[in-house]
Amino acid sequence: MTTSSYMQDALPFFQPTPAHNHTETSKAAAEAAIPKVKRGQKLVLQAIQESPNGLTRDQVSSLVGIPTATVCARANELLKIGLIGPRLDETTGRKMTRPTRTGSNAEILFPMAAITA
To answer: pTM here?
Structure first.
């Protein structure tokens, strides 16, 4: 079993694997980043789970103290594996949003348990 397939089987939280450009150096760097991806996903997920009103990616960044771009990447991974998601406004049927620090609206993310409840 290769290290990559072992990581995928033993640690299902790593979906998808970090991006690489298919060179050996890039693949090695992607595999080395796996523990960091897991930690980042956990930080983002925990922040969202602990907020009953949900959080924007910008709010997660402020709370956790990691760059918004990193939060966006980890949140997108969590969205893809179904652990978090947006909630629809009951009145409009659109994704719920709130203003960010820059004033633009951003979707509010919730743990999936809160969305399906």
So the answer is: 0.69
